[in-house]
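Continuing from the previous page...

OK, I double-checked the sequence for LysR family transcriptional regulator against my notes and this is the correct one:
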Amino acid sequence: MRLGHFDLNLFVTLDALLDTRSVSRAGERLHIGASATSSALARLREHFGDELLVQVGRRMELTPLAQNLREPVRDLLLRSQATLAAKADFDATREQRRFVFNASDYATTVLLTPLAQRLETEAPGISMDVVSLGDSNLQRLERGEVDFALYPERNASDQHPMQQLMSESYTCVVWTGHRLPAQGLSFEHYMASRHVAAQFGDQRVATFESWFLSTHGVAREVVVTASTFNSLPPLVVGTQRIATMHTRLARMYARILPIRLLPPPFEIPPLHLVMQWNRHNTQDAAHAWLRQQLIAVAQDAA
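Thanks. Re-ran it with the corrected sequence; updated structure tokens here:
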């Protein structure tokens, strides 16, 4: 498709080049050869009168113009995708579409699992792709790489719509053979114990540890870390360790593991879990329908 003398398909290539800063990686993303990508880059350079990508040492860097083009080009593509997804009539039973969810394993277990069960009968043509939370959640949302992001409200972007899903409390989980003092789980016993904790992202950030240190001025002795919340209950079984985790998830494991659930010996602010989506998808009928399904699932889990 052309607009005047400009081939609009070049915007797709330009977006990939601006994001990857590499001719070969952009070609791989678009499933075209490096020669075709190089040819497209040459045409883009001619149109804009700018190199766009320049060699700096062993890396390719964006020119100032290319930096300024990143956001409007991505915005144009997202608007175009949203326009193409628009339909006069929407029928969930006949819809054939894939949606990408960015969520922790906690949100996947508590919300996305029952959502998948609901879709099996109400919208069998809709498929789900769940990707783990990491270090670039907001960038993924901004670039339209995910349809839904489920995370704590404190992590949400103010540039995109947001919907509150649920509030969650925290529970201490111990093995049934854990030697508790007669008065129960005190703060002193909690601090004297060893702990298991979840850490996420490439930087292995333990957000609870950061909060605990800033609140209490002391650090817990964490001896086992895992990259999923679902790993925590099994890791306390047969030990004197303590896991501090989401109450709903802990209750699920209490049905199948020899563990006890105890109230924390200190106050922990509740987790407010929200759903976010890119602002360009707000009017998408299928997207709106799926948002309502997720809200309904969250209400059932409340």
